[in-house]
Design brief:
Radius of gyration: 19 Å
Order of helices and strands: EHEEHEHHEEHEHEEEHEEEHEH
Largest sheet: 8 strands, mixed
CATH superfamily of the largest domain: DHBP synthase
Oligomer: single chain
Number of strands: 14
CATH architecture of the largest domain: Alpha-Beta Complex
CATH topology of the largest domain: DHBP synthase
Strand content: 15-25%
Shape: globular
Distance between the termini: 43 Å
Strand order of the largest sheet: 2-3-7-4-6-5-9-10
């Protein structure tokens, strides 16, 4: 079955209708990879049980094999086949699933996942996404899907199907086009410990929201090693140098503005942080494609989802 056409590679970009979702499920069962929309960013999915299929993800992205993958599941029942849920994990799943929250849990003995998914760690990262296309694919395929962002490792994350096509092209046999991602930032990642919780990557679900749900604050200490995606110092990076907290750009810089700082593009003219998060990666893609020699970004308030925006920007500038 063949859909659509493109001029940038061999991957097929197709509207995410029922026929395309059925074809994508067939590809996944055949051990192929498929790019799919979620509410956060576009993901590059493979059957989490199939070691060869998971290897295709690492190869397509050029991803280091010590960097674990997030497994996407239909619901908590499916998640409980993979990870061990204590009371904290149960409370977080009940409050924020389906949605942009990933839980890092102890790996359940005999869990049906390829070893490469967890990068050999004793934990597993699991998310139940809140996107109709991803949910339909999980239902139709009846698989748990390993699905990191559908871009080259360390590059700007994709929030539209054409971002995937430009970044990965023919490395992906099918790209399901579900339109722009609503959240625009990767999920918040929380490690659930025996005696508490810790944010490994900030995202759309804020630390304050989690603390209000659980009734106690997180561990503040950083982790000593990589336990989840998005913890590498350099990540989400354009091909051009990035300078942060800029109010007046230098000659030749493309300024990404915020609020009253208009710039060449503006994450949110009204200073809305949720709107800024949704537009961040698209603005970075546009800046990278411009004729400017470098990228400058206006200051972003370090509060709420602004913490997650600043996390992505600091890694993009590293």
């Amino acid at each position: 079955m063949m859909f659509g056409s493109n001029t940038l590679g061999n991957g097929w970009v197709v509207p995410a209708d029922d026929a395309a979702i059925t074809a994508a499920a067939q590809l996944l069962h055949a051990g192929e990879i498929v790019a799919i929309p979620t509410e956060t960013v576009y993901g590059l999915a493979a059957d989490a049980q199939n070691a060869e299929a998971v290897a295709h993800i690492y190869a397509a992205k050029g991803r280091p094999d010590f960097n674990p993958l997030i497994v996407h599941v239909r619901d908590r029942k499916a998640a409980e086949k993979l990870g061990l849920f204590n009371a904290t994990a149960q409370a977080l799943a009940e409050a924020f699933w389906p949605g942009p929250l990933t839980l890092v849990l102890p790996l359940k003995q005999g869990a049906p996942v390829a070893r490469a998914v967890t990068a050999g760690l004793p934990t597993i990262a699991i998310r139940c996404p809140n996107h109709p296309v991803m949910q339909a694919l999980l239902l139709k395929s009846d698989l748990s899907l390993a699905a990191p962002s559908a871009n080259r490792s360390g590059a700007i994350s994709p929030t539209r199907a054409d971002h995937v096509l430009k970044g990965l092209g023919g490395a992906v046999p099918m790209i399901l086009d579900g339109g722009p991602c609503s959240a625009g930032l990767e999920s918040t990642i929380v490690a659930v410990r025996d005696d508490g919780w810790q944010i490994l990557r900030p995202g759309p679900v804020t630390s304050k929201e989690i603390e209000q749900t659980l009734g106690y604050p997180p561990f503040a200490l950083p982790t000593a090693s990589i336990e989840a995606p998005g913890q590498m110092a350099s990540h989400y990076a354009p091909s051009k140098p990035v300078r942060l907290n800029v109010t007046v750009p230098e000659k030749g810089e493309y300024l990404i503005g915020f609020g009253a700082i208009a710039g060449d593009d503006n994450l949110s003219a009204t200073g809305d942080l949720a709107q800024a998060a949704a537009h961040l990666f698209e603005a970075l893609h546009n800046a990278d494609a411009s004729l400017a020699r470098a990228i400058a970004v206006a200051p972003i308030p370090h509060e709420g989802i602004g913490i997650a925006i600043n996390d992505r920007l600091s890694r993009a500038a590293a």
